[in-house]
Amino acid sequence: MSQTPDVHVPGAGSDVPNLDFAGTTPYEDYVQADVLTHLQHPLSEDPGEMVFLVTTQVMELWFTVIVHEWETASRALREDRTREAIDALGRSVHELEALNASWKPLGRLTPAQFNSYRAALGEGSGFQSAMYRRLEFLLGEKSASMLVPHRGAPRVHAELEKALHQPSLYDEVLRLLARRGLPVPVAVLERDLSQRYEPSPEVERIWAGIYADPAQCSELLRLGEALTDVGELVWRWRNDHLVATRRAMGSKTGTGGSAGVAWLEKRAAKNVFPELWTARSHV
Length: 283
Ligand code: HEM
Fold this sequence. Notes:
By secondary structure, this protein is mostly helical. The chain has helices at 26-31, 33-36, 49-78, 82-101, 111-118, 130-139, 154-165, 169-179, 186-189, 201-212, 218-249, 261-269, 274-278. The site of protoporphyrin IX containing FE has 26 residues, from helix 3, helix 11 and helix 12.
């Protein structure tokens, strides 16, 4: 039998973990795992509901991280720190991949499995996710009506209202392009920020020019590619959600009151940062 102690003796040099804490552990103080792992309150008796709830919570956490990265990128762009913006976007690409991988446990729900707890969800729907809405607003998908469901939650409403009127990540990109001397139309630069961004042929021409001249525009090209990665992965999230929904409930109406799959199909068909996709036909 080994005589080596497997617990840390305070004061004695040791290569085993410390077990002796007066209060909660420093891990708990930092991570708040006790709070986090006691936020799961399923509404039905169905054992399958737990993974639905936790997947939704996990996705909310990823939305929060991604919003943080895009706000970091927006600030960096505003201050002409383009490399830092590209770094933040690059981190968000890996986070979007992790977000999308979390569809796995729900991607093959059958209608009977979903029905076993669907009624318990009442009118609850991911459509009411405020963090997802901030994420969409940062992409330029603005809409004042999306604030309405949050009227009863003053802090959430105030955060969303601020985000509605702030420049999106893409607005910051366009302002940077203008500061670099590229001919972004005044109407685009001075657009009403609370409205959905509409693609512009002049902006499409600017991206086509950047892509056609990689030697001259290497930094802007890297920015364009980072945004394209983001756009592709958001599109994938929307489409994975659409397919999971189609598998779980066919063409029934959604718990949030929409037409369900038919409504999601329209949302999923949209391109994120549209000119970055259409410009490719002209390079
Ligand atoms: C497989 C299970 C799921 C089904 C059947 C489903 C179904 C739906 C439906 C039908 C809608 C349209 C609005 C409505 O009428 O409710 C919707 C919207 C939405 N769901 Fe899900 N959903 C599922 C899982 C999730 C998960 C895990 C999340 C993660 C947070 C999520 C987030 C969202 C969001 C953000 C929207 C709004 C999309 C937009 O505004 O474009 N859903 N969902």
